[in-house]
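Entry:
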Amino acid sequence: MKETVVVKFGGSSLADAKQFKKVADIINENPNRRFVVASAPGKRFVEDIKVTDMLYECYELAADGQEFDDKFQKIKDRYNGIISDLGITDFTLDEEFDIIKGAFSHMAGRDYAASRGEYLNSMVLAKYMGFDFIDAAKYIFFDDAGKFDWDKTKEKLEPKLAKTKKAVVPGFYGSMPNGTIKTFSRGGSDVTGSIVARAAKAKIYENWTDVSGILICDPRIVNNPAPISTLTYAELRELAYMGFNVLHEDAVFPVRAAGIPINIKNTNCPQDRGTFIVSETAEPCEHIITGIAGKKGMSVINIEKDKMNGEIGFGRNVLRALEKSNVSFEHMPSGVDTMSVVIQTDNLTGKETAILDEIRSRVHPDDLYIESNLALIAVVGRGMKSARGTAAILFKALADERVNVKMIDQGSSELNIIIGVADEDFEIAMRAIYNAFINVTK
């Protein structure tokens, strides 16, 4: 049990029979890979449609009272094609298809519809591998508020895994107290894998996808960025929050609590080391920074008032103004007489006047205005704490590219520096930072 490895395979890894066979080879290569978490079939080619999206489309038609037989047939054909191509002759999903189709007609809910992709794919994989099938709805639970319930899950899932030799568990969903299906947010199979790893007391949680680990920067912005060998949970959280999408950000918490490392691996290049995500590491940093991430579409509420720093409850009153409009904030850098509140523009739209009026009535600022079209960039790395001149390198790189920095915020842990730039400077800034810290010879 101590050597148990939990493996999760994403949609691209289980898109068709060819990928299924790769997955089977990977699982069989290590007998300690006892528990497999499976996603729904992803895209087989660029123009293809993910099965989850096909299920959503069918359900929307059903909800509108429209005919969806033709659309549903395409889903059936997708799974039947995988079964046929794998050479499985004593297995059919016909009964499951009938149940799902009937549930759609009776408005079983969008979460139910979305979850069936993982459910069916896991049944096929379990049959192909000769593993048990464990329905996540019976062992992974949410509370009445829709929040994941670890205590109830542990009570049911731990003993089930302890007496099971090898099994496939569908990712992405569990059940509510009333028995209805509840899904995690998109990409939630990562979270299921983490939950299963913790419940199984696994030695490691392998998350198999279509990339050989996590890259330092978005490859759509920086050409062929270097991979990250090892990063800590804390670094991953900072990067995931700012847009890294290799791993669902909530997947960190279950394994972090148990000290279980995550290894991001490539199904198509299983020999690659991938990226290890750990609680702590003595491994020296290859670079001062570990990763760069960012996101556009931010706005800043700028507040100016003389002697603001001496006014008791000033910050609290500003945040209460946001709370009244049900708006959360991202960051809140401040000076002696200034405060900036960074908010996602989508969350602010339509509420600007109400929020500004509320702030004026509460704190009576000398100046108050909103600045939009802002992008945030986070430079993250455990090596920054002990390195001198990190900020100097960062700001020189931006100055050389004539990028104006509109906001600066640094966490107390010295793990990250967050800057704000104009949306139009986002890609330029990302490349400049990458080149300054990684391509230092260029």
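The CA atoms of residues 310 and 336 lie 9 Å apart.
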